[in-house]
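User: We ran a pulldown and think these components assemble together. Before we commit to crystallization trials, I'd like a predicted model of the whole complex to look at. Sequences follow.
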Amino acid sequence: MEMVYEWFRTLYQETGINLPFLYDEYDRNRMIDGLFTTVKLSLVCLFFSIIIGVIGAWLQGSSFKWTRRFVSGYIQLFRNTPPLVQLYFFYFAIGTLLPRVENDWGGQSPIFGSFAWAAISLSFFAGAFNVEIFRSGIEAVPKSTVEAAEALGFSKLQIYRDITLPLAFRVVLPALNNNLVNLVKTTTLAYAIAVPEMLYEANQIWSDNVNVTEMMVFLLLAYFVLVGILVSGMNRWERAMKIPGYG
Amino acid sequence: MKYETDLPVMLPLERHQSEPFLGLKSKHILTVALIAIIGPCVAFAQAPSGQESPLAVLVNWAPLLLKGFIFNLIISISAMAFGTAIGAILGLGQISLIAATRHSSWFVTQFFRNAPWLVLLFFAMFLLPFEINILGFKIPFPDWLKAILGLSLPVMANVSEIVRGAVRSLPSGQWEAAESLAYTRMQTLWLIILPQCVKRMLPPWMNLYSILTMATVLASIVGVSEVMTLTGQALASEGGRPELLAPFYGFVLLLFFIYCYPIARFTVWLEKKYAVIN
Amino acid sequence: MKIKTLAATLVVSALSISAATADILDTIKERGTLIVGTKADYKPYGFLDTSGAVIGIEPDLAKDVADKLGVDIEFVPVVSSNRMQFLEQGKIDLMIATMTDKPDRREVVLIPDPNYYSSGTNVLALKSLGLKEWEDLRGKPVCGIQGAFYNKATSQTYGAEIVAFKGTAEAYSALKGGNCAAFVYDDSAIVAKAADPDWADYEMPLQTIDDAPWGLAVALGEEKFGQMMSEMIIEWHKTGRILELETKWGVTNTPFAQAMHDKYK
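Assistant: Here's a predicted model for the assembly, 790 residues in total across the polymer chains.
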């Protein structure tokens, strides 16, 4: 391993191509931490945004007027404002309104740190899209199917859980995948509130080393690989879930 | 008049028709949205004595911020136009019968679709030259043009996917029927497939525009003088008073909401208008 | 303002066709505008007024340069993470943007001697934390500004976890919100902040470190412009222009500016 590191150090000295995260231990650890933070943030947001989507779509079919209005308001608010500004708003405005807790360095810190706020904010953002995606899928399920289930005495929740959702899920998978891929890319915004994810760490490195070009190329490739893995996994899943002749 | 029954099959049908999504309730939605944005702002905007109140400060800066916002809109419209034009060609390339065209279009689409917008923007910002020299003519590349280029890359890839998806979403029977009527591939595409696709493409395309508009604030991170950059600079010029952040960012949220919400409603209206009745 | 920028760029490009390899000074004179990169979020060194114009100590210095050349001036707001790129790309002719003079930066841009200003690194922190030494920051989250050189030093040498934001407004807000234990920044700005009644609970508790001079910069290879800027800086020190501007913008006169004035008087 040391040989590889040394090779990149030589590469810098010889050609000026500076990849400090490969030979400098401090920068390397930063980059690895960044990668893990990105992956962790993505997974947390994926999970919660799907939960929000499923629950939201169900609540939208509710017979209470105000429940539906509330969900609609949430969707419209989050869909029609920039996620970056949402993130700032959550972190700086809402974050300071919440009660504080004693922390281990003797100060008062907010309950949620920047990672938590990024996770909350991005989950709600992607969740708003997911609600609409699931809703469109539910609407695509033929009425006769739902009626047949009703005739068989299924309860409302049962119909949603056992009939509508599984069918809708297959219909919406492409749209859902698209949104989830977007979500992973949107995690780069967490950079703005100093969540140490990949873009943030890369920025720190290029500020210290003045090597924007190299870091930029590396970042593009890194995200290409990361998202590529997600996309191919999703596609495989899409194929596995496919019902022949349906959708 | 409702009558009591335990049999689901006897219940009136309307219950399953989901409410019109936006319908008449937009004013309620708007109210909720406004309360959600303005509430925390007001709660937060209590000035320490002896200073101008945060809302008064915001009013001072509002004209400048509005100017910045208009710049955001110009960026979004240009990037959309540019991205759509190239993306449409790329999308048709993806369904080409020539394997090389198909594969290369697919690769380009996937590459730019998988790269985060912010990273592409950084890329365009720092790696494009300040001006390019063609035959002794210097074509300048100012910031805003780089931002437009940087943002049109992902738009291009997404439009390409929308075109491909729409074509693929049509039942294969359409192609087969056209073939049996002796249409050429070109004719089938232009006369049968694409006209049906336009309706399917319009709503996702409008969504993409919405996403793009909201992505223009990313240009702030790379230093274009748009609304977020100006907001940050305005806040710094006021001496970094923390109680100003909520009203200022709330104001930016509001600007985008006022612009994007009608677009979203229009998209839904289009969706309904073009809905394929089964 | 944008339209003007656009028009200016178009004019610039039209004019510069003839002067492909000309010296930057000729280009500036031909174009009639000096394009200067300054901070726009760094009160009082460079910030915005409500009309969107850039004002402050550094913009005033830049105006002196434009007056000397007999041309108009145009400001391009820069941040720490893009200022050197802008200069390299030729987007700006001159950069006066609170940049610390560092050997590795001298490899990328031309920094004329002598330095025009100086500041050190210190932190702003709650009095109740009772910080005494830099070592006390170990393991604590410390706010910073993206692209500032002392971020790495603070985290590597003293083990602080740097939480870097894009602008000062965010960093101050995060500090007040309790997201950070301290805010590492230029001492001159911190002194001003700690005197603010809003920040009465905060102090500048540590020894200033890395007292380092600031350098303005021109693109690499522009020796003639660099030479002219050197003379300009000596002139500023000689006439006490820097001290005068400090007073104008409400900064206590710094020892560096005073010493340079005495040296060149």
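DSSP finds eleven helices and 14 strands in chain C. That may be worth checking against your pulldown data before setting up trials.

User: Thanks, that helps.
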